[in-house]
Amino acid sequence: MLSLEEDVDIPLVSVCMTTYNQEKYIAKAIESIVTQACNFRFELIIGEDCSTDNTREIVKKYAEQYPEIIRLVLGDKNVGSRQNARNVRALCQGKYLAYCEGDDYWMSPNKLQKQIDLIESDDTFKAVYSQVKWVDTDDNELGFSDNTAGTLDFKQLLQVNPVHTCNLLIDRSVYTDSVMEILDRAPYGDYVIFLAAAFYGKIAYIDEVLAAYRRDVGIMSKWTPVESGLKRLKIFDLFEEHAEFKEMKFYIRIARQYLCIHVSRHFSDEKNYKESLKYFILALYYTGYVLFAKKDEMYRKVRVAEFIKTGVFSLPYVKVVYRKIKGIS
Q1: CA dist 214 to 108, 197, 200, 220, 312, Å?
Q2: What is the residue range of 288's domain?
Q3: Which 8-state DSSP code applies to residue 123?
Q4: Which tens digits make up the pLDDT trace of 58-95?
């Protein structure tokens, strides 16, 4: 067991940052973290994945400047974002984890303090998020995340996700064996840990803009609507496979209705009518679960008109004819 003196040296929060070829953004990201004003100790673990630009030199410079805060994970070959994130997480010592990718940044020097004060005020809170400002590559404002969601449970989060990785602080206890198994197979990880936190407790909300998320940068911005939808459905599959999350199953199937309509509509746009019809039929099936849901469990509803329109357009060439009649290119 650690002595009291040793306990003081263990950071309460570990901030995880992965970066690759982000020399344009990385300094701002790091500075937004090392300038945090906290009454507790925190650390910043940076995984630099053998960038081909000057990112590694920049993070080394900051590590030399802030040796009491920054620790680096520097491999001798590129391992990819998934393994890089694993390597960073393996070095984290904190009870809580926070995240900031190398192209995002925090907007308040009190972000961590406010999140810690809130998460430690209630044992049922497993994570804390805030509103986020969306910016472009030159920091021009593009908009803001949803600020009406408030405290989240998993039922709501399955249908509507206002959380971004850069605005999250999470209790490390949510990384259970089951969650780690899902993370190893999931197409992406952030939504997995959001759902885990909302399942094991609740995700609390701070109604302030505490972080900035750079849109149209990174691999997720390159996904088509179909790819994004299918990856989300895969994550649902993985949670349904685990007996531990059986309480989620009914609500996952409610969420699948909207998502299948979304995927069907975009397959139709791509003139892939076989897949469009397939997902429309699946949406019909999941409508049965929606009909049995309570009114206060429905956070995102498919309008009847939208449902009918998607079904009609899932048939071969109906949308093509419709567009010609309407004069839509």
Answers
A1: 16, 24, 29, 11, 37
A2: 225-326
A3: T
A4: 999 999 999 999 999 998 899 998 899 999 999 999 99
Single residue among 202, 222, 242 that ends a domain in this structure: 222
Q: What is the dihedral of CA 277, 282, 285, 286, to 10 degrees?
A: -130
Model confidence over 201-238: pLDDT tens digits? Answer: 999 999 999 999 998 776 666 788 999 999 999 999 99
Number of domains in the chain: 2
What is the CB neighbour count within 10 angstroms for residue 62?
Answer: 21
Cα dihedral: 299, 304, 309, 312 (round 10): 120
Residues in the chain, overall count: 329
Q: Which two tokens stand for residue 141?
A: 């404002």
Beta-carbon contacts of 147 under 8 Å, excluding residues fewer than 6 positions away, are 131, 162, 207
Residue in 213, 327, 223, 230 with CA at minimum distance from that of residue 278? 230
- Torsion on CA atoms 172, 177, 178, 182, rounded to nearest 10: 80
Q: What is the CATH number of the domain that holds 208?
A: 3.90.550.10
Pair (201, 290) in one structural domain? no
DSSP 48-112: E---SSSHHHHHHHHHHH-TTTEEEEE-SS---HHHHHHHHHHH---SEEEE--TT-EES-TTHH
For residue 267, give both structure tokens.
């397959």
- pTM for the full predicted model: 0.89
Model pLDDT for residues 229-281, shown as the tens digit of each residue: 999 999 999 999 999 999 999 999 999 999 999 999 999 988 899 999 999 99
> Of the residues 191, 222, 253, which one is the last residue of a structural domain?
222
Please return the burial class of 37, using the count of CB atoms within 10 Å of its CB with bins 0-12, 13-18 and 19+: exposed
